[in-house]
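anyone else get weird line breaks when pasting these?? whatever heres mine. first is seq + tokens for prot A
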Amino acid sequence: MDIAILILILKIGLLMLILLWISIGITMSYRKRRLRKLHLIESTFADVVSKYLYPDKENPVSLVEIQRLMRKIGIRESRMKNVQYLIALMIRTQRSILGKNHDRLKQLYGQIPPFRASISKVRTYGWYNKACGIREIYEMNQTQYLQEIIPLRNHKNLYVRREAQIALVVILGWESLRFIPYLKKKVTRWQQIKIVEKLYDLYREPQVESLRKIYGSDRIFAKQLIMRIIRKYNLESEIDYILAHLSHANYDVREAAIYCLNSFNASEKMEHIKKNFQEIPVVSQQKQLLEYVFQNSEIDLEFYMKLLRTSNDEIKLKSAEILWNNGYKEKVQEFYLQQYSNTDIYAE
């Protein structure tokens, strides 16, 4: 009985081992065919892109030929894995090409059907697939799905709404700014920078009228974003918007205003800046603005002497340093002698 059981166990083990080796063989065979297929898709796509961007004048490639070629190598609706691999190739290629060829590439992508692969991801429940689908849509300029992306700008998931906001900028350009006042969630500093950089990369010509339409927004992130756009595009005509927020009640808005102001030479507006200096409640921000005033204007003795009489020691020391190093050593000495002369120790 024991021998029969042992023989049975050995047979079962041998069978499992045979099945394991068969599965390994099948897997290796599938992977080999799959890699060969992916290499074919990649080489064919590279050939298509090169022929489209740098056409042969005697034998130019047509869009119909490209579509037929894509179907021939397996880019069909029934083979979504091939379609998804092609989408990844398209996105990778577009990111590495700039200038006129970038625009021509967008035209080509409009003729290669994605078979709703990206929008299918957007319609899924999971946030990761949804965000990936939105990215694929704006990377490949699938403008036909804009209406489905617009509501996602206020999605509860941070990454989904980030991609949706970037998609609006890519597809609509300056017109996308009209959605800024209606965003319900906070736009982080990192997201603001991404929006500004993407807008600048794709739409170099500023449209000031579109920007001015959102000046009335009272959202903190909207004010910061507007000032970052003014700075990035070097819009000197809009510098008054930055100056108006130097003494804003919110710390982050003041910080953005001071940071953006440093990109301009507002010497003509210096009196306004000096007037608002005392209204800034944080000393560190006052020192940043004081450094800007020093770097961008002539020494205003009356202004710096007034700061010497303030109660804050850091501002007083900074003002004294500026005067001392710029030819007003005697004024600083005289001021401090007067201060000491009023003490009981000096009187004794």
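and prot B, same format (seq, then tokens)
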Amino acid sequence: MREALAEETSDPLSNRSGGLFVDVPLWVWGATVGVILLMLAVDYVGHVRSPHEPTLRESSWWSAGYVGIALVFGVLVWAVWGSTYGAEYFAGYVTEKSLSVDNLFVFVLIMASFRVPRLYQQKVLLIGITIALVLRTAFIFVGAAMIENLSWIFYIFGGFLIYTAWTQIRAGAQDEDEYHENRVLRWTRRVFPTTDDYVGDKMVVRRDGTRFITPMLIVMIAIGTADIIFAVDSIPAIFGLTQETYLVFTANAFSLLGLRQLFFLIDGLLDKLVYLSYGLGVILGFIGIKLLIHALHTNEVAFINGGEHVTVVPEIGTWVSLGVIVGTLAVTTVLSLRRTRRDEAASALAASRAATHGLAADPDEGGAEGRP
């Protein structure tokens, strides 16, 4: 099979072996990493170096630019490698982007808990995104190596995603709105002297010959430890959609880039996405099932069907996956906004009734309420 694929094309970008883009030239990897680093540098030098609160217009333009770059890259993948890999990239990008938006909820809780001044939130977010990019890159190459050498790892990934889906749905039902410090943070506070207040955007200061860490560094540690958990969740999810290391890396990178601008753009909208956890739970559960089916099709575990492949249930195709992901997010968004509007209308009506001692009319009752 590999020989046949190699004979089909002389383009080294198109050769595929063992489920990985092993023949992607180093210059392609180098150019891709260079573009990503350039985009990060633009953020660091052009925006964060001079602390300011971005306007809605600024956030809108930059968010659109980052999404546009990700879409253009997807079109290039489609043109060079074909529709299958193009669809895999877009499915991975949409999934990772939606998970990244969910991560913003945690970032909001962290920054609210530590009372990060609005002026310095850009820096916190960008450093958090950089940490996430580094961690996810490491996880991606570890995951790729495991997939290449351990066929049974798909069972682990699939089971883990189904469990994660359940925790997402349960988290949505609990409506958690407080951030609880983890052990790393508590240990940091206990071991290192810490200032009570922010000192500009500095992370370490010297006072009376003693070095102190500031709340800014504590926030960075909180974001970084949260990023580890996010990486553990997101990497198995995208490997359930594509096993192409290059696509996994680029979909993750482009989903993270622009997240800072997106935060300021949809800051007020985050609270309106009340059903996002349920939607992500459905997506992660779907991908988990997809991984388990793939594991059965490539089964080599001796105590499952004697180590033979199990092909009773057909594998789920890329286009079906993309449709389920986009459809679930669309339904989740529409239902969330409808629920929010209904709740806001109910709150406004209750406030109106309270202001008029219960004599306000319900618009749905044609003004009949309150009449003799």
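btw re prot B: The two ends are 83 Å apart (CA to CA). The first strand starts at residue 204 and ends at 207.
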